[in-house]
């Protein structure tokens, strides 16, 4: 039995139970309001505040331009939302917000106390546009020192320690390659899992080949495939471009699992973590796969024997995803996805792998 570091200290891995392997509790993502400003048609700022009337715009993708949406900073509301996760049967949340986007770690610890949930924090670095000034000029060895301090000493001047390493690559530029190298060294030397943010689009589209390059960087630093998690992999299963989907619907609307299988065949674990996403990017002519697409993809991958390399999450990173604002909150995997894949004939062993066994293995050290 392994040990897992939570924000309240070390626990046995068998205490994790049902685990959401990619989510956020308190987070600051304001730079995205600038990253995406040219991806959407111009809009008056008055439509970017959260209100019933403005949901029309925000749910079409304009949430990316809304400072109010791109910040989770209400610990009391987060506690209420996470209590719903607990009531649905959840026990553990892997909080995937590293340096650059992480909210107040002290409040996250208090949320863990108040809800009774296990929360695992992340060391590491988010994409380079989000880096604090002090990190901008850090060399690889200095980034390693920073990450190890969050693991061995504590985060942000506390004694609250991280239980995984998380690196985000939005463009795989030199800074992000340096951070990924440092994260891989840190994961290798500490024994913690390395979760890599990849997939999807910002000012560039990160594809399978880019993800494979990221894996090569991690492998070169000695990290074993079974200790690596690549997130947002459900973004690879279907065409995003609405125009292409409409003009060549029969082909573009088909699910394509080959890109994911190329990554799985490297021996790493993937996360399907967009379950419950209640907005789309229609205003930018982009369309996410639906939860039904994701469930179908999961079942296909189960049938091909990949259930020991998959974990699940909800990636709640914007405020209007909360149940409080009409979103699916943290409960979509528990109250819909698992019952539906069971209804569709998934084996109980496959369900247990992706929700309990795989997380316990990955987070143990």
Give a short account of the largest sheet: 6 strands, parallel
In CATH, the topology is named TIM Barrel
Number of strands: 13
Q: Between the first and last Cα atoms, what is the distance in angstroms?
A: 9 Å
From the coordinates shown, what is the CATH architecture?
Alpha-Beta Barrel
CA-based shape: globular
Number of helices: 13
CATH top level assignment: Alpha Beta
Please explain how this structure is put together.
With 365 residues, the protein is an alpha/beta fold. Strands 8-9-10-11-12-13 form a six-stranded parallel beta sheet. Helix 3 runs parallel beside helix 4 and helix 5 crosses helix 6. It is globular and about 50 Å long. Helices cover 36% and strands 13% of the residues. It has one domain: TIM Barrel.
Features:
six-stranded parallel beta sheet; TIM Barrel; globular; single chain; alpha/beta; 365 residues; 13 helices; 36% helix
TL;DR?
The protein is 36% helix and 13% strand. The protein is built from 13 helices and 13 strands. The chain has a six-stranded parallel β-sheet with strand order 8-9-10-11-12-13. The protein has a three-stranded parallel β-sheet with strand order 3-6-7. It has a two-stranded antiparallel ribbon with strand order 1-2.
């Amino acid at each position: 039995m392994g040990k897992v570091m939570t924000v309240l200290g070390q626990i046995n891995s068998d205490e994790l139970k049902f685990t959401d392997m990619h989510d956020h509790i308190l987070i600051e993502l304001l730079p995205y309001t600038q990253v995406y400003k040219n991806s959407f048609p111009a809009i008056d700022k008055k439509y970017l505040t959260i209100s019933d009337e403005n949901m029309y715009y925000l749910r079409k993708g304009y949430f990316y331009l809304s400072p109010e949406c791109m910040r989770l900073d209400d610990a009391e509301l987060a506690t209420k939302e996470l209590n719903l996760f607990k009531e649905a049967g959840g026990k553990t949340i892997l909080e995937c917000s590293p340096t650059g986007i992480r909210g107040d770690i002290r409040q996250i610890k208090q949320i863990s106390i108040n809800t009774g949930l296990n929360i695992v924090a992340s060391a590491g670095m988010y994409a380079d546009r989000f880096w604090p000034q002090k990190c901008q000029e850090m060399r690889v060895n200095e980034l390693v020192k920073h990450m190890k301090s969050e693991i061995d000493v504590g985060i942000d001047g506390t004694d609250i320690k991280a239980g995984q390493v998380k690196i985000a690559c939005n463009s795989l530029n030199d800074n992000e390659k340096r951070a990924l190298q440092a994260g891989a060294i840190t994961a290798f030397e500490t024994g913690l899992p390395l979760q890599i943010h990849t997939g999807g689009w910002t000012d560039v589209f990160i594809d399978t080949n880019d993800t494979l390059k990221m894996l090569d960087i991690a492998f070169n630093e000695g990290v074993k495939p079974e200790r690596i998690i690549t997130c947002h992999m459900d973004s690879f299963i279907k065409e995003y471009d609405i125009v292409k989907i409409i003009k060549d619907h029969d082909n573009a609307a088909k699910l394509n699992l080959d890109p994911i299988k190329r990554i799985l065949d490297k021996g790493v674990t993937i996360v399907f973590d967009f379950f419950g996403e209640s907005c789309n990017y229609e205003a930018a002519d982009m369309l996410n796969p639906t939860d039904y697409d994701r469930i179908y993809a999961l079942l296909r991958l189960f049938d091909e024997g990949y259930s020991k390399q998959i974990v699940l999450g909800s990636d709640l990173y914007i405020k209007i995803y909360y149940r409080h604002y009409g979103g699916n909150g943290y409960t979509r995997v528990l109250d819909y996805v698992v019952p539906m894949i069971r209804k569709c004939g998934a084996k109980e062993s496959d369900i247990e792998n992706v929700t309990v066994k795989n997380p316990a293995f990955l987070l143990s050290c």
